[in-house]
Design goal:
This protein has 8 helices and no strands. The longest helix is centred in the C-terminal third of the chain and has 27 residues, at about 145-174. The protein has helices at about 5-10, 15-20, 25-50, 55-75, 85-95, 100-115, 120-140, 145-174. It is an all-alpha fold.
Length: about 170
């Protein structure tokens, strides 16, 4: 077995194991991946456009945006980077991250160029990459609870409040 075959087997994560860990549905996982790819494209185009200037901060923000695009493509769509040897390994490692870690990483990556150069190009170029982080952050919160469990919690809290109130009234009567 060649080292490339070993890398491929190590890089291909078990989809059942990863979906059981983070609790994301298949369609939400695809939504996050598609948002990451579109965010990478918008970062790449806006970063390239941002580099066509003489202002050094705009050039630095543009280079950072193109780096963001590369990282987004590498983590979310490694098939776009098929000629880079370590792409599958990086993607497998990124898939093992928890959703809140991806959210913090993607949002932090998207905020930095905006802090360097606050222009419409950097804002709109990083908006979808930031939205990808927000989508991962929302998945980290988990599923919404059902109405029955909320009704039970409310009923138990109401009973505890009534018991406290009757206990304090009985203490005042004595």
């Amino acid at each position: 077995m060649s080292s490339q075959d070993e890398q491929f087997q190590a890089a291909s994560p078990d989809p059942a194991a990863s979906s059981a860990d983070d609790g994301m549905t298949w369609w939400y996982r695809w939504l996050c991946r598609i948002a990451g790819v579109i965010g990478g494209m918008s970062c790449a185009f806006a970063g390239l456009w941002n580099c066509v200037t003489i202002n050094p901060l705009n050039i630095a923000a543009g280079v950072w945006m193109m780096l963001n695009a590369f990282v987004l493509f590498l983590c979310e769509a490694p098939f776009c980077c098929q000629f880079i040897e370590f792409a599958n390994a990086v993607s497998a490692r990124a898939d093992k991250l928890r959703p809140w870690q991806k959210a913090a990483f993607y949002c932090g990556m998207a905020v930095f160029p905006v802090m360097l150069s606050l222009t419409l190009t950097t804002l709109f170029g990083n908006a979808i990459a930031f939205a990808t982080g927000v989508l991962y952050g929302l998945s980290a919160l988990g599923k919404k609870g059902d109405a029955i469990s909320y009704a039970r919690i409310h009923q138990q809290q109401k009973q505890m409040d009534e018991e406290k109130l009757t206990g304090s009234l009985e203490g005042q009567a004595l």
